[in-house]
Amino acid sequence: KSVAYEVLRIEPPVPFQYGNAKEDIVVESHDASFKIKKGEMVFGFQPFATRDPKVFDKAEDFVADRFVGLGEKLLKYVFWSNGRESDKPTADNKQCPGRDLVVLVARVVLVEFFLRYDTFEVEDKLFLVGSKVTFKSLTK
Predict the structure, then answer these.
(1) Mean pLDDT on 120-137
(2) At what angle do helices 2-10 and 99-116 cross, to 10 degrees?
(3) Which end of the chain is more exposed for a tag (fewer CB within 10 A), N or C?
């Protein structure tokens, strides 16, 4: 479960989100606050939040057990589904209704992969704004 969340933290499936503010709001970061007026266009780049080094230790690194035990509290800082991972989707918050299905499918794929193969070798590289992983060998 933690591995699926870590993948979604590092590479959100929808990294760019935008919308018009429905009311005047103040968005706060660790060291600043921004007033957004009703009707203004707001754009968000998810990796800015999900790779925040003030929240996540070794924020740029893949840490498989990051969300195990007390680490589950970090899920409130994972915003890949148009809302906090710790919130439930409702009609009012417009959070992705398929969010839980995405996590389930990611977990099933991981389980199937590790049940099918004993060893594997991969090569990872930075690719445009994300990463590229190439399987070099798979052993049943």
Answers:
(1) 83
(2) 110
(3) C
